[in-house]
Design brief:
The chain is built from 3 helices and no strands. With about 90 residues, it is an all-alpha fold.
Length: about 90
Amino acid sequence: MLGLGIIGWIIIGGLAGWIASKFMGTDAQQGIFLNIVVGVIGGLIGGFLLKLFGVDVEGGGLIFSFLTCLGGAVILLFLVGLVTGRRKVG
């Protein structure tokens, strides 16, 4: 995702953060800025986790970058929900 540039990070991160917040039921608490932040941080988390499994994240392309951001954003929102007590495991 590093090859996308700052505008790419913002657009893909914003879309991924928004879809992840819809999926996790947190969209009412988040605005556009927080959706972008969640998506970009989610991209970093997703990229880190995929690299741990040996996946080439740098050559994946636009769709792969979006899916990486989306997956990482869902993980991030789930972890934030656990910490804040809004989500329960099991």
